[in-house]
Amino acid sequence: MRKIRLENWICEVEGLSTLDRETLEDIQLRRLNELLAREKARGGFYKGLPERLGSLDELGALPFTTPEQLAENAPGLLLTSQAEVSRIISGATSGTTGPSKRIFYTERDIAHTVGFFAAGIGEFVSPGEGVAVAMPFSGPDGLGELICRAVKSLGARAVRLGFGRTLAEQAEMLGAERPEAYIGMPVPLLGLLRWMGAPGSLRRALVSGDACPAGVVSELERLLGSRLFPHYGSREMCLGGAVTCPAHEGMHLRENHVIAEIVSPSGETLPDGEFGELVITTVDMQAMPLIRYKTGDHTRFLAGKCPCGGVTRRLDTVRRAREMPDIAELDSALFPLPSLIDYAAGFDGETLRIDAVGSVSAVELEAAARELYPALRSEAAVRPAAPDFRGCCAGKRSITITA
Questions:
Q1: What is the C-alpha separation between 313 and 254, in angstroms, rounded?
Q2: From the CA atom positions of the chain, what is the Rg in Å?
Q3: DSSP H/E element including 184
Q4: How far apart are CA 70 and CA 102, in angstroms?
Q5: Phi, psi at residue 151, to the nearest 5°?
Q6: Per-residue pLDDT tens for 201-229?
Q7: Which residue in 5, 36, 10, 37 sits closest to 24, CA to CA?
Q8: Phi and psi (nearest 5°) for 175?
Q9: How far apart are the first and last CA of the chain?
Q10: Is residue 356 classed as helix, strand or coil in its secondary structure?
Q11: Which residues is 33 bridged to in the sheet?
Q12: DSSP 381
């Protein structure tokens, strides 16, 4: 199998002809020490850290950075002047209950993300093809615009589908523009394909922005007739972090810019194959690099070498900390019901309530939920999917918990 585009891009950015683990880890350690030296000279939030480490193994001895610290210490975490900042993202992440944060990017940070996006998108998009970008468009350097920039760099055509359009509006745009590929959240794509009754011109998809559990993956791949390309990113890593290769065995990390760890609840670094919390050190972010930032996302490193032959480490499916009841588990249990378009769920400590859209029966939904959570009482209500339906969730999916 040919070298994956992500690693071709890393070689291009780093001026390398080939890439191996030793070279990649040398880049990481050099960048980490450059970052520590910058932090020491800056005298900001990380001023108490050592100026240099002897090996990557020593990173695990440094303290974690928490979302609360990020929210409270933005000025101390900013390593560039305000004049060098090209983009600021403010607010709490959609669908989470974390604190409101301000994340800063320079033009170089953004350019690297566009290059990373292009590497991932290039695995399933060819020049001249149309790509429906179903992500938020929030200004010149917003996520939707950056994806469009990456699509155009590949010689492909970006279709600005956006996020939050009605089913009818989306279907009309897809019918008029006839894109072959789609980039967006998994559940809205599944609901749209089911409402349309057929994928139309769509054949391939990159899914991102929310968890994509097995039950949703299998349904999307069945409808599209091809494997999905999951992507993982976050604001804290300038939106792009890991993406699937043609072998479809995990998401390859952008390791020249991000050092990732998986840690236990007690903070111990875990070996490959064990699930824990993802911790990131963004060694090549200019504006707001973070050291050992606790993402709150849970995953594992896949052990062994990818069949594609790549040397970058791979993440398994990423999700938020497991709850009871858990939205990813519930999605995986309910969406195999073929007439379900979307649903919202709430839990009051005794009853799991499911407000569904589609032609599925309430009895089917309750039975599927009861099989997953036999100790919980489940109640479902269903309404048909109208053309003006915009989805049950405004962002990342979650179960509303009430006392």
A1: 9
A2: 21
A3: strand 181-184
A4: 8
A5: -60, -45
A6: 999 999 999 999 999 999 999 999 999 99
A7: 10
A8: -65, -35
A9: 53
A10: strand
A11: none
A12: E
